[in-house]
Write a structure and sequence with these properties.
Elements (H helix, E strand, L loop, with lengths): L9 H16 L3 H24 L6 H18 L4 H23 L5 H20 L1 H4 L5 E2 L6 E3 L2 E4 L4 H23 L2 H11 L1 H6 L4 H27 L1 E2 L6 H14 L5 H17 L7 H14 L3 H13 L3 H11 L2
Antiparallel strand pairs: 1-4, 2-3
Length: about 325
C-alpha cells in the first residue's frame, strides 16, 4: 500500500479537515451533524454503486431499520448508547443480507426493480405494524443516551457540540474502514465485478458472494447512520424507511461523486444545505434538486468531487503529470 492509497493518506486528511471546518462555517452544529450522518449513508451507498456497480434503491430499508431497531431497544429495553448502535448495525446488516441475497440473483433493471419492491414492502410493513413502529406518527421521545466507558461517563451528549464530536469520531472510523476495504484485494475484486462481471466470474471469482458481502457492509453502515439520525431528531419517523429516503441517499451519492468516498461528504452537504436553505422559502424546492441532479449527470460525470479534481488538473502547470496524480487521488 503506497502513500496515495494509504488509509491515512491525502483523502483521509481532506475528510478530517472537512469534519473540523464544517461546524465552524455552517449556520449551526446540528446542520453539520445531519450532513455527517447522511454522508455515512451516502458512503455506504457508494460501496455498492461506485465500487460494485449495484444501483440499489434499498438503502432506505437499512436506514429505517437501523433507526427503528435502535429506538425500540432504547425505549423498551433501556439499552445504552453502544448497545443501541450495535443493534442498529446488526439490524442493517441482517436486512441487507436478506435483500441482497434475493436481489443479486438478477442483474440490471431486474435488480433495480427488486430493490424497489423490497423498499415499498418494508414501508408498508412499518406502516401496518403501528404498535411496534408507531405507524404514520413514528416513534416519539427517542432518547440520546450518555457516552459511558466501563461505568465512567465521558459525555452526556446533550449539547449539539458534544453529539457532533461523537458523530464525527464515528464517521472518521467508518471512513478509514471503508478506505481499507476499497484498497484491499476484496475491494479490487468489487471493482473488477463492476467493470466486467462475466470476466470476473470466468477467472474463478464467486461474484454473488462478493456482492453479498458488499451489501452487508453497506447495510451495516447505513443502519448505523439511521440510528444516529433517530438520536439527533429524538424521533424516528416513518419517512426514514420510505422510497424517498432511498432516492435521496442515491442522489447524494451521485452528486458527490461515485467511486470517491470524499464525495459522500460533498453530496450529503449539498443536498442537506439546499434543503435547509430552500425548504422554508419555496415548498417546491425539490425541483432544484432535480435540476442539480440533471446538471451533474450531464456536465459533471464524476460528481462534485470529480469536478474539483478536474478543475485542479486544468489549473496545474504540468497537466499531464497532475492528471495522473489527481486520478489516483480521487480514489
Amino acid at each position: 500500500m503506497n502513500n496515495k492509497t494509504s488509509i491515512f493518506g491525502g483523502i483521509t486528511l481532506i475528510a478530517l479537515a472537512l469534519i473540523v471546518v464544517m461546524p465552524i462555517i455552517l449556520p449551526s452544529v446540528t446542520l453539520a451533524t445531519e450532513i455527517l450522518i447522511f454522508a455515512l449513508a451516502a458512503l455506504a451507498c457508494n460501496l455498492l454503486l461506485g465500487y460494485t456497480g449495484l444501483l440499489s434503491f434499498g438503502q432506505g430499508i437499512f436506514f429505517g431499520g437501523g433507526a427503528y431497531s435502535a429506538s425500540l431497544v432504547m425505549l423498551h429495553l433501556d439499552f445504552g448508547l453502544f448497545g443501541a448502535l450495535i443493534t442498529a448495525i446488526i439490524a442493517g446488516a441482517l436486512l441487507a443480507l436478506i435483500v441482497g441475497a434475493l436481489s443479486i440473483r438478477r442483474s440490471g433493471i431486474y435488480f433495480v426493480m427488486l430493490t424497489l419492491a423490497f423498499t415499498q414492502m418494508a414501508y408498508f410493513l412499518a406502516y401496518t405494524f403501528s404498535d411496534l413502529t408507531g405507524g404514520d406518527n413514528g416513534l416519539l421521545d427517542v432518547p440520546r443516551p450518555e457516552l459511558n466507558f466501563f461505568g465512567l461517563t465521558i459525555s452526556e451528549l446533550k449539547s449539539s457540540e458534544d453529539f457532533y464530536i461523537f458523530v464525527a469520531a464515528l464517521f472518521s472510523i467508518v471512513f478509514i474502514f471503508a478506505r481499507r476495504v476499497i484498497h484491499s484485494p476484496f475491494g479490487t475484486t468489487l471493482v473488477a465485478i463492476r467493470e466486467n462481471e462475466n470476466r470476473s466470474s470466468a477467472v474463478g471469482f464467486s461474484t454473488n458472494h462478493f456482492k453479498l458481502i458488499a451489501f452487508v457492509i453497506s447495510g451495516a453502515i447505513t443502519g448505523l447512520a439511521g440510528a444516529l439520525y433517530a438520536m439527533l431528531l429524538n424521533f424516528s419517523p416513518l419517512s426514514n424507511i420510505d422510497l424517498v429516503m432511498s432516492e435521496n441517499i442515491l442522489i447524494m451519492t451521485i452528486i458527490g461523486g461515485t467511486s470517491s468516498l470524499i464525495g459522500s461528504i460533498l453530496g450529503a452537504g449539498a443536498i442537506v444545505l439546499i434543503g435547509d436553505l430552500l425548504s422554508s422559502i419555496w415548498p417546491r424546492w425539490m425541483m432544484i434538486l432535480g435540476i442539480a441532479l440533471i446538471a451533474v449527470v450531464l456536465f459533471l460525470p464524476g460528481g462534485l468531487w470529480g469536478g474539483i479534481v478536474s478543475l485542479f488538473s486544468k489549473l496545474s502547470p504540468s497537466k499531464k503529470s497532475k492528471k495522473i496524480s489527481v486520478t489516483e487521488v480521487i480514489k
